[in-house]
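Hey,
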Amino acid sequence: MRINLTTSTDDHFARYAYVMLVSALENKQPEDELYFYLLHTGLDSRYLEEYKKLEDKYRGFYFVPIRLDINRFDNRLPTEEWWSMAIYYRLMLPDIVPDDVDRIIYVDADTIINGPLNDLFCTELNGNVLCACEDFDTTEVVAGSRYIPNLLLAKGKKYFNSGVLLIDVVALKKKYRFSDYMEVLFELIDKIDSPDQDVINFVHQDEIKEIDRLRYNYFAKAGYNTGRGYGWVKDNVSIIHYAGRKPWSGKGLRYDTEKIWWEYARLTPFFMELAEEMVSEEMELAYADTDIRRRAKEKDELMELVEKLKDLVMKLTGETI
């Protein structure tokens, strides 16, 4: 079976996308072919070379980098510290996917493929353009002020996460182009919080088939908080999504399903540098914590000295300060 997989990345996320790809290859059925379409606007040659080397390591793997024209992305598109222009690359799929691709799985770079992709890839779309999973925090979103989720839920529809998508490429190309997404985005730009995800939900609100989020788009941290840890995830989840705080970050509390990400990271040429970066961040955080405690202690000691000086002045002058 031929399986088509794609993701979007830039230099900052290239190593994490590589870990995701290695996880997919490690879980690929031996008889299958995996075509991997990497969307980028100019990756460092070091990364592209490492991706290409995987063709020699894994039988039946084909690497297809697709360089997009950065000038097609309006500089007014919203970006934040935690998301770059790369989040919009998936919206160009109807314009750039080769004609021999009839369907494709899109996954975010912060995912791990924890099992074969065959079942997801062969899912019947029943006339829909996309398959997706309901967003994990939809109920929380409804309680907030986010426009697109509330608009859809008020109409009796669901709000989906765009981090894992099965796309009917033939149907998509017949109806949509990148310009259609951009037109909607700029019409709703004051009301959008998660740009690519909000636009996909709005444009395809009547064309998305829901699939099981516990299996195909499992939010690792949120799921861990419900009591589903490492063992359950390894046995039951096909695609793990490390939304929010990342396993490679040295900042924040750890949880055991992060180990799955590191098990695959260990198989990559980037393992040592990723581990060193995380430890370095942990050490900086520990130093900052120590420094804060030291400063708090100094403040307490200073306040104690001030009180003693006040007492001394009162004794010498008889005046209250």
